[in-house]
Amino acid sequence: MARLGIDASSVAPEGKGIDRVQRGTVRSLAALGAHELVVFARHPEELPEVRAVVIRERLSVSWQQWGLPRAVRYHRLDAVLTWTERLPVLGQGRYVVWLFEPPLHRIRLNRQVGAGVRQRGSDLVTRALWKRSLRRAALVLTGSRATAEAIREIAPARPLYPGLDPRFAPGPGREGRYVLHLASPDLRDDSGTAIAAARNAGARLVVAGRYDGAVPEGVELLGRVSDDELVALYRGAAAFLDTSLYEGFGYQALEAMACGTPVVASATTSLPEIVGDAGLLCPPRDADAFAEALQRVLGDGALADRLRARGLERARQFTWDRTARALAEAVDEVVG
Fold first, then answer.
1. In whole angstroms, what is the distance from residue 163 CA to residue 28 CA?
2. Across 320-332, average pLDDT
3. How would residue 105 be classed by pLDDT, with cut points 50, 70 and 90?
4. CATH number of the structural domain spanning residue 282
5. Which of 74, 196, 201, 278 is 20 to 30 A from 300 (CA-CA)?
6. What does the pLDDT look like over 122-166, one tens digit per residue?
């Protein structure tokens, strides 16, 4: 049985995004039992399914450049599954990289928002290493076909969708008729367009997450919510509005569909391939188009019911068991 190292360095209390992916990966591969797992984490208490090795390096780049190759040698790993685009420059090891988006978009965004010296230094390291890392990897997986296409000229990649937490499912939700939008400090959420679209559509908008702009009348800002609260918000919403400008994998749209909520989303990057015909897609930044789509969903019960049914059917395809089996096959291919 091959010994597989899993770089779960992004798992953290109340983590989102890649934290969800790493948790699901560890849980599903442990349940599958196809390989002997050695999991590395900064917060091992968050991964009760395994006995994780604690990452001592405080800086991510230190862990990636020195900790990972040392772990390969000490634990005699046959392969390592990681989500970093900064593989170690020195040392041996077979690395399977699961990339959800090219880093250049994130680097440009950090510049735009005036990131601190430490983040800018980290971005310089990323810019210097990421292409070389992908070419060095034994195998590159991507979270979507859109990401695979974005790096096509740098390295061949195989799309692999993550699974979905089973908590996201139909059931009792928050009461009231509202449109739900999730915001964050990431400017690509384009929450200003979501607010304008809801206003133009005459819809009540509930915004979960952090939004630092002006909040007009008719918009309810909840701030950060727990996963249980998020599930209830998805379930109760008359529609979910995703105005994102860039998504390596459209998790929020998928979670909404899994809860039986009609989706209105941007027709960009991975969102069209995740949503398919289970939602209405609009040009990014086009508040009028989003408003028109919202009016259609909110005013046409038959359309909303069709989108709910299609969304539930589509969401059922994204299981962690399926993802774990594909990951296991990829590892076996690399180990040979």
1. 9
2. 98
3. confident
4. 3.40.50.2000
5. 196
6. 778 788 889 999 999 999 999 999 999 999 999 999 999 999 999
Same domain, 279 and 325: no
Dihedral of alpha carbons 166, 209, 228, 17, sign: positive
Q: What is the pLDDT of residues 34-49, one digit of tens each?
A: 999 999 999 999 999 9
CA distance linking residue 79 with residue 28, whole number of Å = 17
Gap between the Cα atoms of 49 and 285, Å rounded: 42
The predicted structure's pLDDT at residue 215: 83
Q: Could you tell me if 97 and 139 are in contact, meaning their C-beta atoms sit under 8 angstroms apart? A: yes
Mean pLDDT, residues 253-279 taken together: 97
Q: Which residue type occupies 273?
A: E
| Cβ atoms < 10 Å from Cβ of 309 | 12
129: closest CA among 156, 90, 94, 93?
Answer: 90
CA distance 143 to 250: 9
- My answer on whether 75 and 143 are in the same domain is yes
Asked, for residue 173, whether it belongs to a domain, the answer is no
Contact 271, 283 (CB under 8 A): no
pLDDT of 114 = 61
Give the pairing type, strands 95-99 and 139-142. parallel
Structure token digits, residue 305? 């019911």
pLDDT digits (tens, 9 = 90+) for 286-302: 999 999 999 999 999 99
**131 with 223, same domain?**
no
Confidence of residue 75 (pLDDT cuts 50, 70, 90): very high
